[in-house]
């Protein structure tokens, strides 16, 4: 189904949209930074990393290889430093994984571009859908065991403190689901499957809950900014996939 407004945003209005979305993202993140942080050096560093992340995700949604994967390497490297310096060594796993996928992506995408130099997305077969679903199921099943093993070495990704969302949903399992889905979505994106944006939409919704529960409001703002971009990315990739 074609939507004229989205056709314009991903077509003749693309540059105007990118600029407006980026400015809105910078304003939202800056407001969150001033209102919810102590303005420490680490806070300033993460704000800078967040701005790089904005360039990364909007470039990925518009299939720009060097801008998307290049800035993705910068953003994920910054996130690794943030997590390491804040003592959250377990949370370094996801950005480390994403960093190396962007390294791979910058070479892989360059081999699959259209005449304009933009990456050509591809549709997923039933087999890919089944493999993805199996990966998610196995990941959810194994994660608690792996997390406990990492915890024994002081590298736990998620701490299970028995807290609940809405009084009955385990905060631990929300984190587990968010972690596994984000890893899956990132892999699907780098492999050029357009359905990755459906996963990112789900991931962003789950991460929003995690960030609100943990009082991490600047991350919550970032998640909402990313969510808008995810819908645009979904439409852009599917439109390009269909030709």
Write the layout of secondary structure elements.
Elements lengths: L3 H6 L4 H23 L4 H21 L3 H21 L7 H16 L17 H27 L11 E2 L3 E2 H20 L5 H18 L3 H26 L1
Antiparallel strand pairs: 1-2
Helix pairs in contact: 2-3, 2-9, 3-4, 3-9, 4-5, 5-7, 6-7, 7-8, 8-9
Q: Number of helix segments?
A: 9
How many strands in all?
2
* DSSP strand content: under 5%
| Cross-sheet strand order for the largest sheet | 1-2
- The class by helix and strand makeup works out as mainly alpha
Quaternary assembly: single chain
The ordered string of helix (H) and strand (E) elements is HHHHHHEEHHH
The whole-number mean of residue pLDDT values reads 89
Global morphology: globular
Give the CA-CA distance, first to last residue.
Answer: 13 Å
Gyration radius (Cα, Å) is: 18 Å
Main pleated-sheet profile: 2 strands, antiparallel
* Poorly predicted tracts of residues: none
Query: Helix fraction?
Result: over 70%
Describe the structure.
It is built from 9 helices and 2 strands. The chain is mainly alpha-helical and 243 residues long. A two-stranded antiparallel sheet has the order 1-2. α4 (65-85) runs antiparallel to α5 (93-108) and α5 (93-108) runs parallel beside α7. It is a multi-pass membrane protein. Belongs to the nicotinamide ribonucleoside (NR) uptake permease (TC 4.B.1) family.
